[in-house]
Design brief:
Layout: E1 5-9, H1 13-21, E2 26-29, H2 34-44, E3 46-50, H3 53-58, E4 62-64, H4 70-80, E5 100-102, H5 107-112, E6 126-129, E7 135-137, H6 140-156
Parallel strand pairs: 1-2, 1-3, 3-4
Antiparallel strand pairs: 5-6, 6-7
Length: 158
């Protein structure tokens, strides 16, 4: 089964970021009314992810999430849609959902970018969002995300 395109409302913003970490196309409806979210989801064929019962009922396709915990939310999505990825993919910007592209900065760009010392000299791959230019690399933050996603995915195993 193909992973759906998601539309997360403001109540599940952290979940949106985790889905983006794994490469899932996840729009985030910050500052939108329920009506705007319903229309957006219908126009782009997205599944609404929300903790709002009324919004979940109004959307053509939705998943009502009961917990405020990102772990519980991710597990609920994974149970409802088996096969969602749980590996960090470096394909989606966690800030804007734009596509990430491999990026090898010039010296001037490296000085201006928020890259920690040693990222480039260690040969770590770097990525940049084609939409907002945010820079990504595989570092300690990513290791923590990988660890959490691996732990969560084990909870799904029979």
């Amino acid at each position: 089964m193909a992973t759906p395109r998601w539309l997360a409302d403001e109540m599940v913003g952290r979940l949106a970021r985790y889905l983006r970490f794994t490469g899932c196309d996840t729009a985030y409806a910050r500052g939108r009314t329920d009506e705007e979210i319903v229309v957006w989801a219908r126009e782009e064929d997205r599944v609404v992810l929300t903790r709002d019962r009324a919004l979940a009922r109004r959307a053509v396709r939705s998943l009502l999430l009961n917990s405020p915990s990102v772990r519980e939310q991710w597990l609920a999505v994974a149970r409802a849609f088996p096969g969602i990825p749980y590996e960090v993919a470096f394909t989606r910007c966690t800030l804007c959902n734009g596509p990430l592209v491999p990026w090898r900065p010039t010296e001037a760009q490296a000085r201006a970018a928020p890259l920690p010392a040693g990222v480039l000299s260690a040969g770590r791959p770097t990525f940049r969002c084609a939409a907002c230019a945010h820079v990504y690399w595989d570092g300690s933050h990513t290791a923590g995300i990988r660890r959490r996603l691996t732990e969560w995915s084990r909870e799904l195993s029979p």
